[in-house]
Amino acid sequence: MSKTLSNKSNLQVIYEDNHIIIVNKRAGDIVQGDKTGDKPLSDVVKDYIKDKYNKPGNVYLGVVHRLDRPTTGIVMFAKTSKALPRLNKLFSEKKANKTYWAIVKNAPEKPQDTLVNWLKKNPKNNKSSTFPKEIENSKKAILHYKLLKALDNYFLLEIELETGRHHQIRVQLANIGSPIKGDLKYGFDRSNKDASISLHARRLQFLHPVSQETIDVIANLPDDPIWNACEV
Predict the structure, then answer these.
(1) If we measure between CA atoms, which residue out of 219, 178, 193 comes closest to residue 76?
(2) Which one of the listed residues 29, 34, 68, 194 is annotated catalytic?
(3) Where do the H-state alpha helices sit in the chain?
(4) Long-range contacts of 162-167 (CB under 8 A, 24+ apart)
(5) 68 included as an active-site residue
């Protein structure tokens, strides 16, 4: 099934100033270049900036954080070399508050809870596994979720991350019997038509590293009947 990827003409820009640009990533967009050789979102944003401001030569753009390829939602880039280390620090010190929405198959036993696991990544299959206690090469993973809405066949959860581990939300929700819709890798029984998974980086709140203003942005949900039913 074909899907629409981002390009400089259809890029969904949520926020932009001299130092920062925040976009709403489509499913299938890859944030940074990898072995697939597919054009990354970082290059699309550079094309957009070059075109919009008639910039000659190379455009500076710093990648601050990433989202898994099949997920959607907020991705922030630094437009200046001054902003990049400050934004990196903001994320490493967990001073940027990220909120995710996920459509899951089964309601968790508790309407809200904190999940604590130890995750270990297997690079061979690009998959993480959960453990109840620390094992060699594992990393502690903490998230908080709450049930926002019961849909006809699914459930909408809101997730706040305390740590940012590989596939953390996907594997921790699957571990409590609530795999994310479309996520074959972590136990959902069928794929979404566009090969996405129903995980969306919904909101980002942070202190602007230059102006010191509070920035609070929300990414529109994908245009899809089930996501449309999630508006709360």
Answers:
(1) 219
(2) 68
(3) 41-52, 83-92, 168-175, 225-228
(4) 162/94, 163/139, 164/65, 164/91, 165/119, 165/121, 165/128, 165/139, 165/141, 166/119, 166/121, 166/128, 167/68, 167/119, 167/121, 167/127, 167/128
(5) yes
Helix (H, G, I), strand (E, B) or coil at 154: coil
pTM for the whole structure? 0.94
* AA identity, residue 195: A
Task: Work out the mean pLDDT of the chain and round it to a whole number.
Answer: 93
How many contiguous H segments (helices) and E segments (strands) does the chain have? 4, 11
- Please name the residue that has the structure tokens 């795999």: 179
Radius of gyration of the chain (CA): 18
Which positions ≥6 away from 192 have C-beta within 8 Å? 27, 181, 182, 198
Tens of pLDDT, residues 80-139: 999 999 999 998 888 899 999 999 999 999 999 999 999 999 999 999 999 999 999 999
- Tell me the C-alpha distance between 158 and 14, whole Å: 20
> What does DSSP assign to residue 196?
-
199-207 and 62-63 strand pairing:
unpaired
Whether the per-residue pLDDT at 56 is higher than 90: the answer is no
Q: For residues 163 and 146, is the Cβ–Cβ distance under 8 A?
A: no
- Give the closest residue to 201 by CA, choosing from 180, 220, 182: 220
- The amino acid sitting at 205 is Q
Q: How many residues does the chain have?
A: 232
User: Alpha-carbon distance 220 to 202, whole Å?
Assistant: 7
